[in-house]
Amino acid sequence: MLYPLLTSPEAAREIGNKFFAACRDVGFAYLINLTTAEQQEHVNKMFQWSRTLFGLSEEDKMRAARPKDPTWHRGYSGVGREQVSQMEYDPDKLAELRKVAPDYKESFDLGNDAPTARLPNVWPPEEEIPALRGFRAHAKEFFEQGLLLEKKVLKALAMGIPGAADNFFDEYHADAENQIRLLHYPGAPAEVFVSGAKGRVAPHTDFGTCTLLFQDPEDTRGGLEVEDPRKPGHFVPAPPVAGAIVFNIGDFLMRWSNDMLKSTLHRVRAPSPQEGETHTCSRYSIPYFIGADPNKKVECIPGCYSPDRPKRYEPITVKEYIDMRMSANY
Questions:
Q1: Which of 237, 272, 296, 304 shows the greatest Cβ crowding within 10 Å of its Cβ?
Q2: What CA–CA distances, in Å, run from 114 to 118, 140, 144, 146, 282?
Q3: How, if at all, do strands 283-290 and 210-215 pair?
Q4: Is 0.85 surpassed by the pTM of this model?
Q5: pLDDT digits (tens, 9 = 90+) for 161-171
Q6: Confidence of residue 282 (pLDDT cuts 50, 70, 90)
Q7: Can you tell me the mean pLDDT for 304-326?
Q8: Do 43 and 214 meet the contact criterion of CB atoms below 8 Å apart?
Q9: Distance between CA 65 and CA 43 in Å, rounded?
């Protein structure tokens, strides 16, 4: 658990040490008391907009269709377009994986909307879709609020890493290379999930620095599951907790930390049907992916290597690594 850093320096350092230990040993943590009441209201409102967006007709949603370029993570992707794979790069094996039923979800991606942003956003035409008037403004504000949370979280983590400066991550995250993904997992007859005919998201890790996951405040069933680091192949539920944010380490940060910090497998499954249920309810979530600046070349974080723990990786730019990972996901 992580508490606000608006405390004494000693208490802040203790929080950082506990947070680092959670990231080292598990790779996941629930962050509580991190958002202000105003920020939590932004979260709640973003979920309302997400419901409105995914409730539109397919024709209207496709007016903001995601570009065909697989590296352009912006705009709307319909149900069945994506199939997550985990660290597989062989083209023939990827082709076989993509024959499996695609992830049963739809999504809308957005990022930094500044004129200097690396990837332009793809916005639905609000002037032609009255239900979405105000969506873009709120999404942009949500993105900015996420940057404030990012600074708190990365500072707390740096404070816990032995040998790293408290502001270590700042210079590597100056360009706001983050991505918001609005996710909707539609409901369906329970039997199609039980039989495996449909799935939500297969086991995978995230490939950036880290992720802040906002779970639907109205969701009482959940679906996110995290692999137990002590029992490979065994997944445990990570249910929604009111006011909490789920944090996890990404693959790039795992590499950056010389594998000291853990990027843990996780998946999304449809909840097991309760007695009398024949239909699985839909689910909404919002991951906020935090990424380092693409052109920054990184070496092992100070404090994550020693004579007994030599550096395992050569320096690499963020773009080189992300391009390699993204090629295996679509």
A1: 304
A2: 9, 10, 11, 15, 33
A3: antiparallel
A4: yes
A5: 999 999 999 99
A6: confident
A7: 89
A8: yes
A9: 24
At 210, list the tokens: 């880290």
**Where does 215-295 have alpha helices with state H?**
251-256
Instruction: Examine residue 137 and state whether it is found in any structural domain, yes or no.
Output: yes
The residues, any chain, with a CB within 8 Å of residue 307's CB and separated by 6 or more, are: none
Provide the β-strand partners of residue 109: 75, 181
Query: Are 247 and 36 a contacting pair, CB within 8 Å?
Result: no
CA atoms within 13 A on the CB side of 245: 27
Query: Which of 41, 29, 27 has its CA nearest to residue 205?
Result: 27
Instruction: For residue 132, give its domain range.
Output: 9-326
pLDDT at 108: 98
Query: Residue 35 has which token pair?
Result: 């958002």
Residue 323 host element (H or E): helix 318-326
Question: What token pair was written down for 155?
Answer: 């500072």
pLDDT digits over 121-140, tens only? 999 999 999 999 999 999 99
pLDDT at 195: 56
Residue 286 Rama label (left phi>0; alpha psi -120 to 50; beta): beta
Instruction: Confirm whether 2 is domain-assigned.
Output: no
